[in-house]
Each structure stands twice: as C-alpha cells, then as structure tokens.
Design brief:
Blueprint (H helix, E strand, L loop, with lengths): L8 E2 L1 H6 L6 E5 L3 H6 L6 E2 L7 E3 L2 E4 L3 H10 L7 E5 L5 H12 L5 E4 L2 H7 L29 H7 L5 E5 L3 H5 L15 E2 L6 E2 L5 E2 L2 H10 L7 E5 L5 H11 L5 E3 L3 H5 L10
Parallel strand pairs: 1-7, 2-3, 2-6, 6-7, 8-9, 8-12, 12-13
Antiparallel strand pairs: 4-5, 10-11
Helix pairs in contact: 4-9
Length: about 270
C-alpha cells in the first residue's frame, strides 16, 4: 500500500508539502519542449501519444498491456507508487493517464487541480532540470474492466433506466451540427455536458465547486445511483469528466475509449440527432 494518503483531486499546496517524499511520481503530460521551459520539481515527462493507440477510425483506443507495461515501467512506476498527473490544457491529458491507471487497477493516483496554471498562480517553484526516471518492471494488466466500456457493452445497456450516457463534446457535435465522423449526432439516450462546463476558467482551470457540479449533473439525470458511461470524440475530454465524477464519489463509472470516432464511423450502430 502507498504510504501517501492523497485525495483524487489534489491542490498545489498539498502537492508541494509532499514533494520530497518517496513513493510519489509526478507526471507532466505536456510536450517535451514546454516541459523543459519549466515544470514542477521532480516531475517526469510523458508524451500523450504513449498512452493512446490509434485504430482508425477510432483514434483514442487503449494500448495493449505489453505497450503500457513498457511505458509505465520506463517511468519507474510500481504498484505502490502514488501518481500525480498534470498538464496545462485543462486536465484532459492528465486525466486520460489516470483513467488508464484505473483500468489497470492502480489505486494510488491524483489529478492536480488546475494543473500547471494553478501551480504557477500559487507562487510555487518551477524547475528546468529534466528528471530522468529510473526504469522498473511494471506489469500492466487490465484488472479493472469495470472502468471500460466498449461498443458491445454500450449496445447491451442502451435504454436501461439505471444507465446514464454522458456525452462531453460540444453542443454542436452532440446535435450533429459539427460533424467529425462519417455521421453526426450522439449515442441514443445520451445527455450532453460539454466537458468545459466542469472547469472554472477564471480560477486557473480548477474544477468548479462540488455543489455546482452536482447540480449540473443531477439536472441531466446523471446521478450516483446509475452506472455512468462517459465519452467524447477520443476519450480525451471525457477522461476529464471521468475524473470529475470520481472526485464526486460516483462508484459505477466507465470510460468509452472508442468514443464517437468509433461509434460515429460505424453505420451498424444506432445514432440520434
């Protein structure tokens, strides 16, 4: 078990207090050049392309276990490591890494609330010294299949009253006005909450207050008693929403990595506008 007892959503002040502790792995999901210009001290850099796999037309699928084992071992990850992830674009990339860890049954992870913007705004130091991780031997295995939805699972659950499908794309994409696949529209029965609805943009891209988030979600019928499946175009934006829901205590929660790039390009699957 990790000796660190950190929440799913962590503030900059909390992270700074633990920077020198063993068992902590801070992962920066920005591009390498931006990382070198200034990052949280001790953070390692991980390119986003390493945690997704393009299987055209589905562009955000999970890599296989062998690839994830290689990538995560290169970071020095162990089963007991507590991972804190961040980026500078609202948390989508960092959240995708943490959702991936969740699918592997890795229980020790946190999202830095507000990412690098919040860290800098809080007056915390940056480093320009690249951190070279000590590679280990991490074995990735999808032991938490309950965090993953595929198209067959969604088809089997369509229309069930205990299911909430949450489309986190823009309203235009959801309505089929902004078409980014062979078809426009959404999965039948899905409700729409643009992922940026959860972001407090004037407050360094942190999550909006919990009460506000709960009010929006419950107004859409996305309640904790239901199984919630989130998706967007490639499970980038919806990975952020997954972390919002996890932070709020939702227990029955899945991400759909195929997302609209798979569903919208498959004429055999039902579609609503």
């Amino acid at each position: 078990m990790s000796a660190l007892n950190l929440p799913v959503l962590i503030e900059s002040e909390q992270l700074e207090a633990h920077l020198q502790e063993t068992g902590l792995l801070i992962v920066d999901l920005r591009n390498p050049n931006t990382y070198l210009q200034g990052h949280i001290p001790g953070a390692v850099n991980l390119g986003y392309a390493n945690i997704i796999q393009a299987v055209p037309p589905a562009m955000g699928m999970l890599p296989d276990e062998a690839r994830l084992s290689e990538v995560l071992a290169s970071l020095g990850l162990t089963a007991d490591t507590h991972v804190v992830a961040y980026d500078d674009e609202g948390g989508g990339r960092a959240s995708r890494l943490l959702w991936t860890l969740d699918t592997l049954g890795h229980q020790h992870f946190s999202l830095l609330n507000g990412g690098l913007q919040a860290w800098v705004a809080g007056g915390h130091a940056l480093s320009q010294q690249a951190t070279q991780p000590v590679a280990g031997a991490y074995h990735a295995e999808f032991t938490n299949g309950q965090a993953i939805a595929d198209k067959d699972y969604i088809l089997s659950r369509l229309g069930q009253p205990d299911l909430a499908l949450l489309d986190t794309r823009s309203p235009g994409e959801y309505q089929g006005l902004d078409v980014r696949a062979a078809r426009g529209g959404h999965i039948p029965g899905a409700v729409n909450m643009n992922w940026i609805t959860a972001i407090d943009q004037p407050n360094q891209l942190r999550f909006r207050p919990d009460a506000d988030l709960r009010a929006v979600l419950e107004g859409l019928g996305v309640t904790p008693d239901k199984e919630v499946i989130v998706y967007c175009q490639t499970h980038h934006r919806s990975a952020h929403t997954y972390m919002v829901l996890k932070h709020l205590g939702y227990q029955k929660l899945r991400g759909y990595p195929g997302a609209w790039s798979e569903w919208g390009n498959d004429p055999a699957l039902p579609c609503e506008r």
